[in-house]
Design brief:
Elements lengths: L3 H11 L10 H4 L23 E4 L2 E8 L3 E2 L2 H4 L9 H5 E2 L7 E10 L2 E7 L2 E18 L1 H8 L11 E28 L2 E31 L2 E13 L3 E3 L2 E3 L5 E2 L1 E12 L7 E4 L2 E5 L8 E16 L5 E11 L8 H11 L3 E2 L5 E5 L3 E11 L2 E10 L14 E6 L1
Antiparallel strand pairs: 1-6, 2-5, 3-4, 5-7, 6-7, 7-8, 8-9, 9-10, 9-14, 10-18, 11-12, 13-17, 14-17, 15-16, 17-20, 17-21, 18-19, 21-22, 22-23
């Protein structure tokens, strides 16, 4: 019988839920979004419909994977999560040859604000704490062994491979100053651009990289032969054996940023002019004037540098006759002993510092007016994965259609 802890870990790692493509993506595309729109495109704050916008807080959550599917029944009846047969009854394992990946993103927004200084200029301040977890490159055979608790004999007596497995996690706080400006306002054509400069404070990071893994499963809980290169590390405010976290993170303060631009096509701009109190040709600033608009932004440029934990390790070598079920080191010294006792495994030096890249994303936004206040929008995000980098978290690449 699986323990409650095991079931909750499986749910955390593989639950197939996706709640949003980017922070509050539908609302963020609107000219009424105020400071919230700056998270998607910093140019959006220029020519905002609001003079002042204040955000007290908010939460954005995203959990996704391409391995296990969850039956919706436990979502309707949460006590099913405690069922001893939870894994068999409510999780489904589609069989295919695709590499398995998992993504978790949580963003907690702090107090933020935007001020429209004049018709052409706006400034803003944003604050939020973010946590990202990525798992990439898990081959189907190894995924199945882990899911079955190393009890799947379907691959017994076969030499299996996993080219590169990456697991990275990072939490950080960011404080941003946004400035945006209207560069062109000529009748039908309107163009604005903006940028956000962020102060980055790392709260903690950890990584596990396994490359060129070859293993030979001979029976329950036993790998007869393992060959791989592995790196395991964390920031200096974390202990891995046993796990312990100390707040705040011991990172070196860094800088990051977002940049973006938005073009609007306004074929009927003259309809949004009025005269009042002796003044003529005034803009109806409270109205959207475009038939369609297109935006482009590059988000989360930068990286955070951490001091390495004393538990950080790097190994390269071979292990023979390894009973995995008994391989549960209680501290880093036990890990060293376990690795060196079985092999020719060589421990290689680890740097005193490491850097973790932010989840850099290129975002394309488009919005079209169907009728009066009815719009349909599109957001297409391309997430850089920095496959050549040792440590880098990333967003998900995706396309979303947003009617509003």
């Amino acid at each position: 019988m699986k323990t409650i802890t095991t079931r909750l870990c499986i749910l955390f790692l593989f639950l197939s839920l996706t709640s949003s493509a980017q922070d509050f993506m539908g609302f963020s595309m609107s000219n009424f979004s105020g400071i919230t729109g700056a998270y998607l495109n910093p140019a959006s704050t220029a020519d905002s419909r609001a003079i002042v916008d204040i955000e007290l807080g908010g939460v954005d959550f995203n959990l996704s994977n391409n391995y296990l599917n969850l039956n919706k029944e436990p979502l309707r009846h949460p006590l099913n999560f405690l069922d001893s047969n939870f894994q068999k009854q409510f999780l489904r394992e589609p069989i295919n040859g695709n590499t398995k990946n998992m993504f978790l993103g949580v963003s907690v927004h702090g107090p933020s604000f935007m001020i429209r200084l004049n018709p052409k200029n706006s400034i803003g301040f944003t604050s939020r704490v973010r946590t990202y977890v990525n798992m990439d490159g898990l081959e189907p055979a190894l995924a199945r062994q882990l899911y079955k608790g190393l009890k799947d004999t379907a691959d017994a007596f076969q030499v299996l491979d996993n080219k590169k497995l990456n697991i990275e996690a990072m939490s950080w706080a960011e404080y941003g100053i946004t400035y945006s400006h209207v560069f062109m306002d000529k009748g039908k054509h309107f163009l604005k651009a903006g940028a956000t400069v962020k102060l980055l404070q790392g709260l903690g990071a950890t990584y596990l990289t396994i490359s060129d893994l070859h293993y030979h499963v001979t029976g329950k809980d036993t790998n007869a032969y393992v060959s791989a290169k592995a790196s395991l590390g964390a920031s200096s405010n974390m202990s891995l054996f046993p796990f312990k976290y100390t707040y705040p993170g011991m990172s070196i303060l860094g800088l990051g940023g977002d940049i973006g631009a938005i073009y609007e096509y306004r074929p009927d701009y003259e309809k949004f002019k009025y005269d009042m109190d002796g003044q003529t040709n005034l803009d109806m600033r409270w109205m959207n004037k475009y038939k369609f608009k297109v935006g482009l932004s590059v988000l989360d440029i930068g990286r955070i540098k951490y001091n390495s934990s004393t538990d950080s390790r790097s190994y390269a070598g071979d292990i023979n006759i390894w009973t995995v079920a008994k391989a549960q080191p209680k501290n880093v010294a036990a890990l060293d002993s376990m690795m060196t006792a079985k092999t020719a495994a060589l421990r290689t030096p680890v740097s005193n510092t490491f850097s973790m890249s932010l989840p850099t994303t290129i975002s394309l936004q488009a919005d079209y007016q169907i009728y009066r206040i009815c719009y349909v929008g599109l957001i297409a995000n391309y997430a850089f994965q920095f496959k050549g980098a040792t440590n880098a978290i990333h967003e998900l690449s995706r396309v979303a259609i947003v009617p509003r």
